[in-house]
Write a structure and sequence with these properties.
The protein has three helices and seven strands, in the order ββαααβββββ. It has 131 residues and is α+β, with helices and mostly antiparallel strands. It has two domains: 69 residues, no CATH class; 62 residues, SH3 type barrels.
C-alpha cells in the first residue's frame, strides 16, 4: 500500500492495516503498525503466522496485541503519535510516563518521557515527545 506522494509505503495489505489500526484504537493503545520498521515487521510476522479463516483474524490479532503490548500501570498518552518500542523484534513493556511543562522562549511547552522495559533481557528505552 502507498500513501501520499510516494513518501510512504507499507507491505501490509490495506484491509489488514485498517483492521489493526481499528483494534489499536478500540483497545485504547493507539498502536500504528507503520510507526516504525520494527513495528511493521512485528505485525507482518503476526499476520503471516495466522493460519485460520478471515473471520478469526481480528480475534487472533486482538489476543496477540493484549499478550505482547504490555502495560505496567497506565497506557501511554502520546503527545505526537505512537512510538512503541521494540527489542529483538518484540514489543517492550510500557512502564510509565513522566509529564512536565518547560518554558521555551517564554512559552510553556509540554514534554513527556515514555519508559519501556524488556521483561526478558532487561533493556530499557525512553522516548521523548513535545507538544
Amino acid at each position: 500500500m502507498e500513501y501520499g506522494y510516494d513518501t510512504f509505503r507499507t507491505e501490509l495489505p490495506e484491509d489488514q492495516l485498517e483492521m489493526l489500526l481499528d483494534l489499536g484504537a478500540e483497545m485504547d493503545l493507539y498502536i500504528d503498525p507503520t510507526a516504525s520498521l520494527e513495528c511493521e515487521q512485528y505485525f507482518s510476522g503476526l499476520l503471516s503466522d495466522y493460519r485460520g479463516d478471515r473471520e478469526g483474524l481480528r480475534a487472533y490479532c486482538r489476543e496477540a496485541i493484549q499478550r505482547d503490548f504490555r502495560v505496567m500501570k497506565e497506557k501511554p498518552a502520546w503527545l505526537q503519535g505512537d512510538e512503541w518500542q521494540f527489542h529483538n523484534g518484540r514489543p517492550m513493556a510500557f512502564v510509565g510516563q513522566l509529564d512536565a511543562v518547560l518554558r521555551r522562549d517564554g512559552s510553556p511547552c509540554g514534554i513527556s518521557f515514555y519508559v519501556f522495559y524488556d521483561l526478558e533481557g532487561g533493556a530499557v528505552k525512553t522516548v521523548t515527545q513535545c507538544d
